[in-house]
Amino acid sequence: MMFFALSLLIISVIVIVIIAVIAPKEYIIKRSIIIDKPYIGVFSFLKFIKNQDYWSPWKKKDLNMKQEFFGVDGEVGFLAKWEGNDEVGKGEQEITFINENDVVETELRFEKPWKSISKAIIKVEDFGLMQTKVSWIFSGYNKFPSNLFMLFYNMDKVVGKDFEEGLKSLKSLLEKE
User: What is the pTM of this model?
Assistant: First the structure.
């Protein structure tokens, strides 16, 4: 009986290790939209983190979210902290790179509902004829054991819906101006 229990334990550990090795460790979510506005104006709006309050799907999920800001918005080093309900959690977003007129990169450091660090990129491309393509990209790395969770949670499908909603709100907002 003891041999059977020990064998079962060893087999279970081996199976978990194999699954951990093959489970997805990296994720990337990307959505894009065409906005009928010149790209310079679109980028000028998007480089300011505080403007996300007007189009972010997460802001809509918690209108009473607590926010704090540090530094100069629209510049590398600007930091936005938030704490909200269960849907938005707690964390911070820092501008880490700006390539004037086309890319804003931020690092998102989540504390709740679980700890993680992700990279978010907003890329703006001139599509001519007064049109701008905006791409919203989110990527990160899942360490063991959280990568096991990704076998059962399709992050692209779930978070991708929020990105689509946010980009539609952005398009509506900017095209009204």
Answer: 0.83
